[in-house]
Amino acid sequence: MANTLLKISGLKVAYGGIKAVKGIDLEVNEGELISLIGSNGAGKTTTMKAVTGSLAFEAGDIEYMGQSIKGKGAWDLVKQGLAMVPEGRGVFTRMSITENLQMGAYIRNDKAGIAQDIEKMFNIFPRLRERKDQLAGTMSGGEQQMLAMARALMSQPKVLLLDEPSMGLSPIMVDKIFEVVRDVSKQGVTILLVEQNARRALQIADRGYVMDSGEIIMTGKGRDMLDDPKVRAAYLGE
Q: For residues 176 and 231, what is the distance between their CA atoms, to the nearest angstrom?
């Protein structure tokens, strides 16, 4: 039986009078790469914010490693192994790449291990090594996305949440980002990926969920969903 790391049950989230998430259920098991797809405004990012403790929810529950996270702050969740790469990346623009990576390890105090992991990030993202002393704000969007992912991995997460990692990137950089997401998953990191690029997200996913107007309307294996006529018509432009 797979070990469920993240379990969302009957989640409802409202902004003012607008019900953004309307009672969804979603599970992420250890070692899985799960893609949550849907059009803009479907409620995907709102769901992610609720999971990371940055947005309160009005009903339902979110369990991480069997414990409810209700009322827990983002700081506590990062310490417990839940890391997020937000939409828009959020790198520290006035810090160097190396300093950004060090900030990703702020919950750790194993200096030798941190240095080893920075080296590991440079191996995964060679472009960051080339620019390690450069200010993050002077990098391209794709390079900043790589840095944001590397910084999140520095906290040694059990679950990595990725919110729209391919947004605004060139086709070549999109290829690189999805390649890295797949490789990180193969290394044993559990991933929940929110992504508008439905085709690419489902190609690498073990399982997928389709969200529309605040509800989960479909779920299944990633590859099966790629072949589903409804998914193809609505989200793949076919």
A: 25
Lowest average pLDDT, out of 12-16, 72-76, 230-234, goes to 72-76
CB 136: neighbour CB atoms within 10 A?
Answer: 23
The answer to whether 152 and 160 are in contact (CB under 8 A) is yes
Segment holding 150, helix H or strand E = helix 141-153
Task: Judge contact between 163 and 152, C-beta under 8 A.
Answer: no
In total, the chain counts a number of residues equal to: 238
Cα 174 to Cα 119: distance, rounded to the nearest angstrom: 23
Which pTM value belongs to this model?
0.92
How far is residue 70's CA from residue 50's CA, in Å, rounded to a whole number?
A: 9
Rounded distance between C-alpha atoms, residue 127 and residue 173, angstroms:
12
CATH number of the domain encompassing residue 87: 3.40.50.300
The answer to whether position 148 is within a domain reads: yes
